[in-house]
């Protein structure tokens, strides 16, 4: 009986990168650095986008606050008119400086709304009231809030 012959051994494949020349290895050294720089660049653009979004949202929130303040102030003066129905004509813009509740309200409008102007038309005989508040926000322009109502004089 004959013994089987052992298989002949083949030369092993060289490991990756071992058989490369020095010049080929030098060409691959900067690839990781370039990939890192590109990742940092993408991250920086993302951060800049987030900062821009934050600035835009802050501007929108400020504008929204001024609109809400204008609506609240108009409702406040209408409430004052209902309480003080007999003096309704004194809430008109021309007479406001002679009537303390109206003057206090007008000063409050000036504090809360930047660059504000107030126009109130109050008819003491019919009870019709028109209120227009205008304010100016730097970089956004002029905004106006107007409302009309009727105060029961009975």
Task: Describe what this molecule looks like in 3D.
There is one protein chain. By secondary structure, the protein is of the alpha+beta class. It has one domain. Helices cover 47% and strands 17% of the residues. The protein has three helices and three strands, in the order H-H-H-E-E-E. It has a three-stranded antiparallel sheet, covered by helices on one side. A hairpin with a 5-residue loop joins strand 1 and strand 2 (128-137). The longest helix is centred in the middle third of the chain and has 53 residues, at 31-83. The model has no long low-confidence stretch (mean pLDDT 86).
Summarize this structure as a short list of keywords or feature phrases.
rod-shaped; 154 residues; alpha+beta; single chain; three-stranded antiparallel β-sheet; 47% helix; 3 helices
Please render the helix and strand layout as text.
Layout: H1 22-28, H2 31-83, H3 100-112, E1 117-122, E2 128-137, E3 141-150
Antiparallel strand pairs: 1-2, 2-3
């Amino acid at each position: 009986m004959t013994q089987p012959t052992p298989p002949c051994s083949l030369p092993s494949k060289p490991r990756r990168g071992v058989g490369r020349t020095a010049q080929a290895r030098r060409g691959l050294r900067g690839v990781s650095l370039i990939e890192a720089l590109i990742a940092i660049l993408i991250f920086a653009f993302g951060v800049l986008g987030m900062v821009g979004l934050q600035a835009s949202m802050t501007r929108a929130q400020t504008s929204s606050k001024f609109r809400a303040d204008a609506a609240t102030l108009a409702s406040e003066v209408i409430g004052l008119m209902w309480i003080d129905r007999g003096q309704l004509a004194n809430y008109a813009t021309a007479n406001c400086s002679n009537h303390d509740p109206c003057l206090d309200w007008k000063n409050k409008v000036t504090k809360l709304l930047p660059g504000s102007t107030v126009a109130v038309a109050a008819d003491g005989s019919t009870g019709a009231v028109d209120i227009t508040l205008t304010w100016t926000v730097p970089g956004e322009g002029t905004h106006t809030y107007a409302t009309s109502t009727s105060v029961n004089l009975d």
